[in-house]
């Protein structure tokens, strides 16, 4: 029996103005995964982020389009490896957990492992309202897709090559984590979630996440993905709302017609009829788009299967 070949491991760190943390982050991942190559992708930093990353031994590259989604798309396109460890460059994720996550991914032939931060974190690691917002968005994603992870906004993940090279990466900003989760759920990839430590940022490092703006973008991303990947359910909800409104408007008119044989509110009757027609059109659109989505999902699945599994 021959040993399995050692996989090529890449640690990929998107980074923006993280002079205070990036050096230690790179060193900690190099110590935890000495066989891995650490890549830092700078996103127009105005401080010494690039210099600190290079001094710590990272391969530094850049992405000029601002936003974490743009950076992740560039990293996944450019970096060639068998296993990818994605983390932030702010020093909040525990690099010591990475070897266990990599071993689990490899041993169980998984495509993604999510590091859940929600049970082991420093008291000041989450900004005010962030834990509540995380739970709210995670619950909403579960409502839309029927199944989910406990921490969909975690930036600490380990991926197989299959996942990375089949991921379309359409997001521009912090909604990228949501898109990663939905991609795995929709293709029914083998995944896992493990508890990882989440630390507070070091002094001099500030979060780039805007609570309300980015929360709104993530919510809109969930709705857009729901419309794109579950069009029948999406348009059925709209059809049901339109049909219910039409019936509520039409009921008193129908009662009056039965009692008197007259239609005294003709404009309301026209409105109710129009809403019911729109409800039928919405439901028909859902059926048509569901067929299109099914075909597109099959093509995505075939693209995923065209990539050899890990250790093969």
Report on this model:
By secondary structure, the protein is an alpha/beta fold. It has two domains: 9-226, Spore Coat Polysaccharide Biosynthesis Protein SpsA, Chain A (Alpha-Beta Complex), CATH 3.90.550.10; 231-305. Helix content is 52%, strand content 11%. The chain contains ten helices and seven strands. It has a seven-stranded mixed beta sheet, with helices on both faces. Helix 5 packs parallel to helix 8 and helix 8 packs across helix 9. The protein is elongated and about 85 Å long. The model has no long low-confidence stretch (mean pLDDT 89).
Query: Total strand count, please?
Result: 7
**What CATH first level of the largest domain would be assigned?**
Alpha Beta
**Order of helix and strand elements from N to C terminus:** EHEHEHEHEHEHHEHHH
Strand order of the largest sheet: 3-2-1-4-6-5-7
Specify the CATH architecture of the largest domain.
Answer: Alpha-Beta Complex
Q: Fraction of residues in helices?
A: 40-55%
- Annotated CATH topology of the largest domain: Spore Coat Polysaccharide Biosynthesis Protein SpsA, Chain A
User: What class, by secondary structure content?
Assistant: alpha/beta
Labels describing this entry:
312 residues, alpha/beta, Spore Coat Polysaccharide Biosynthesis Protein SpsA, Chain A, 2 domains, seven-stranded mixed sheet, 10 helices, elongated
């Amino acid at each position: 029996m021959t040993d399995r070949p050692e996989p090529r491991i890449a640690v990929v760190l998107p980074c923006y103005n993280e002079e205070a943390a990036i050096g230690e982050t790179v060193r900690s991942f190099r110590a935890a995964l000495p066989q891995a190559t650490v890549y830092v992708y700078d996103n127009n930093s105005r401080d010494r982020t690039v210099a600190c990353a290079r001094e710590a031994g990272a391969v530094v590259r850049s992405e000029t389009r601002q936003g974490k989604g743009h950076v992740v798309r560039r990293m996944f396109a450019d970096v060639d490896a068998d296993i990818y460890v994605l983390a932030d460059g702010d020093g909040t994720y525990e690099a010591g957990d990475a070897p266990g996550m990599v071993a689990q991914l490899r041993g169980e032939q998984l495509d993604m492992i999510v590091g859940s931060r929600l049970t082991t974190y420093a008291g000041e690691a989450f900004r005010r309202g962030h834990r509540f917002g995380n739970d709210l968005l995670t619950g909403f994603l579960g409502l839309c897709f029927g199944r989910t992870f406990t921490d969909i906004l975690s930036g600490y993940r380990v991926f197989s090559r299959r996942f990375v090279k089949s991921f379309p990466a359409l997001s521009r900003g912090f909604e990228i984590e949501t898109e990663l989760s939905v991609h795995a759920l929709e293709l029914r990839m083998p995944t896992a979630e493990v508890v990882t430590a989440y630390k507070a940022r070091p002094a001099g490092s500030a979060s780039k996440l805007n609570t309300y703006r980015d929360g709104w973008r993530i919510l809109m991303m969930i709705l857009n993905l729901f419309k794109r990947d579950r069009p029948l359910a999406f348009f059925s909800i709209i059809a049901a709302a339109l049909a219910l409104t039409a019936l509520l408007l039409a009921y008193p008119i129908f009662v009056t017609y039965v009692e008197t044989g007259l239609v005294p509110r003709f404009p309301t009757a026209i409105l109710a009829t129009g809403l019911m027609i729109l409800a039928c059109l919405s439901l028909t659109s859902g059926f048509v788009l569901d067929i299109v989505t099914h075909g597109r999902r099959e093509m995505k699945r075939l693209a995923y299967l065209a990539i050899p599994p890990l250790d093969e």
